[in-house]
Batch of 4 targets.
Target 1
Amino acid sequence: MAFETSVSLTDCDYTYAIHSNIKKYTLRDNTFAQTKVGNYELNRLLEAVPNSGDGFKLKIIINKDLTGFKINITDKSGLRLVNIFKNPENKIIQQKFYFLMDSLVEREIFERIEK
């Protein structure tokens, strides 16, 4: 999957795009780790029950030029993409995703665009 300037997850209420004021130090302050090739990566486990270890993996990767990014939500193994917005039983997981993304929007890493 290539880096894109905006990402719209299937059935998600919003489209996310790179904010024009994004800074490398802001990424590091928000627990993005720099990879060997220079990209910035954030990994989170979206769990319905905190500290249960049972949930979906969220991975956000921003390229080293800060011009493109990817968002993936996978099963626990990290091998299969999952749509958390399709099943109404995932309401808590959806809220946690939106909470995390809202905090990244507040810090001018992403812009949120209504569909």
Note: The chain has one domain: 6-108.
Target 2
Amino acid sequence: MEVEEDTFEEETLEEERGGPAEELEEVVVREENPPKTVKIGSTLAPEHKAMLQKVIRDYNDVFAWSHEEMPSIPPNLATHRLNVDPTFKPVKQKKRYFNLNRNSAVQREVDKLLRAGFIREARYPEWIANVVMVPKANGKWRMCVDYTDLNRACPKDSFTLPKIDQLIDSTAGNKTLSFMDAFSGYNHITMHPSDQEKTSFITNQGLYCYKMMPFGLKNAGATY
């Protein structure tokens, strides 16, 4: 996990964010309690709106609402690999200790990741990182992994993300635009088997490594 200083001015942070360009209406995808819904633009032409609603309901099985329902991208299509400089000596960070509240949050997160198949037990890893607990706005904890040492040993991808003007140009000529909220998007992509144990982290429960691509790695954004 790389920590950078916030360079925004205070007045920039206080600026009001713009709202959506049009009103949105909810479409029920699954009849559950509570129902699972998605949002579509209310200004769509009636025939387009009816067609879109039918497609969403007919193919409701493609939506994932939990980690267990989430499929992964086949490894033959995409995997994330680490280009670790062999001149760097592997680092095993000294274990950090947390209070009972944070330890309980770590245990819950580890259990959830194990059930989803995102992590596995690591046996004798050469790289070991600590977890970092970050408070969320709702009062809960977010578990991150301190990959500072591992990232230092990896060169930065020369082509990280497409330029924003390329993304805008690619929408030219299209009548509609769809925004997809990719549920745990990074965790759709597998870590290459030879690099999985380099992502190892330590907790009170033991040593674990990621089978799926985690947040915090230097070039994860470029792969995603």
Note: The longest strand covers residues 24-30.
Target 3
Amino acid sequence: METYDPPRSLASPVDLCAALDAAVTAAHAGAAILQSYAHHRADLVIDRKARNDLVSQADREAEAAIIEQLQARTPKFGIVAEETGGQAQGAATWYIDPLDGTTNFLHDIPHYAVSIALIAHAGTAVSPTERLARDTPVAGVVYDPCREELFTAVYGLGAWLNGRRISCSRTRTLDDAVLATGFPFRDFSFASQYMPMLHDAINRARGVRRMGAAALDLAWTACGRYDGYWEMGLAPWDVAAGTLIVREAGGACSDMHQQDSWPIGGRVVAGNPDIERALHEMIAPHLDQPG
């Protein structure tokens, strides 16, 4: 998948801590709108974008509040958001999912989140001594308003849950691992690849869970609740923040085909280094090669 290639003559390093602070503020603004609607779900106007792909005014209003905050605080960055689109531009681009787990939200299942990530583009300076060679997530927030759990990460500095540093599990083998995944729900074209993967995981792992919110699957992998996670058919904004959070928690999060610098194509494999590697080995025999 093509990525944005900015000019090489870039200014001073991106202030990653300021970017994270802006993202946290924006996430809280979006979540406040979601929670205000959570008590009045019967009144929500719901549109069907495609089969099993729903959007409500809660998604749209939360996204608008998030974008307003980010544009005010970081006007030079690009924005790519689930409902309103956008494009990569400048030194870095925000990827926004105002409500990851829309189906859970609409069915009153308290497992959904706001996900916001900043992707610094190739050539961007992230410190006085480092200029990135490839597009890379550099600041990320996943906020679960039902549990009031705020997962954050900054490139090179670490990952946190409500201000406490987190790390991936130390589980070494799939036999001892609890894995997270997501079933095909919107795009069924890869089901013939995915179902054998699921079969292998069920037979090899200690347990497999499907909770329906990719951003939280990644965040929970980062804090050790899950040992590993894989899924296909996602969007870039589903995985952008979680990718960084896993990486900064000492784990690995990669494109399933191991080609892109982060899983922008929506096929993700994550876990501590041992489990991420084992998942790739489990998946590889069933995975079609990209055309």
Note: Helices lie at 16-38, 57-73, 102-106, 191-204, 214-222, 236-248, 273-283.
Target 4
Amino acid sequence: MVDMSTQDHSPASSASSTPASPRRIVVITTGGTIACTTDRSGALTPTISGAELVAAVAQRYPEGMLELEVRELGMLDSSNLAFTDVDRILAAIHEVLDDDSVDGVVVTHGTDTMEETAMAADVFHADSRPVVFTGAQLPYDHPETDGPGNLFEAVTIASDASAQGIGVLIVFGHAVLPVRGATKWHTTDPLAFATNAPEEPVRPDPLPLAALAGSKVEIIPAYLGADGSQLDSTVAAGARGIVVEGLGSGNVSDEFAAAIDRAIAADVTVVMATRVPRGDVHAAYGGAGGGATLARHGVISAGCVHAPQARIILAAALAANVHPQTLF
């Protein structure tokens, strides 16, 4: 994680190094808290256009430094997104990058599911140019809103040549995070995202863009006394993949393990994540529900990736018809 608060990113400090031709950054806006204002009842609703969001930060750059373009995809609440919406966002990113004159992409997005959409973008991101996700914890009309600052820093990173070739990033609360392993760790703190990944997470080879819609992948939690009946029901409902949010380093009860075995026998791919905030999944324990036994039976480890991102990776593998193990 890079903390931008310790660095001088003011345009004035770099004015002397302003390139002869402006860097061209496209900002794709999708709604979220960054675009919200407060209605009479106190509820937040997205009302601010992409042009308004970008206008609030464009004036902070020296003239001729950047060319900012807005592509507005709508006013979406990220807690209400489905794979069809994610597919639209991914298609927009790829369409923008089809233009060789573009130097980077910024996507504004609600924080509730930002880590998932950004993970989907990373799985299919074969371009060296940066794609940066950002948003806000406070609405546009809040006196201490963090949206303009986050957007300014996201655009700054997207226009920096040093951000090329490292995959999709989340820039938020002065932090710069590779998306793999990133998670929203606080509901209200300005530093909304943290990471469970190593300092330099390994990115698997990206996939050709494929539609996620139609990939039925579910998350089933393990907990004290969980018997696996939810997993059986999910398989019966037609799931092609299941991510288990396991206990500890990736363990479940014996009954739950039996349900996993039944799922694998039914040709359902099972990935094991952990409900623990920090640390990787390790195939360490024996016994029917131990991680070592489950791995021998074909359960794939999610590594440092938590269940929501593991679901995205598994869905992408199924959509692209590649073995999921190659993406974890």
Note: The helical segments are 50-58, 83-97, 114-123, 147-158, 229-236, 254-265, 291-296, 307-320.
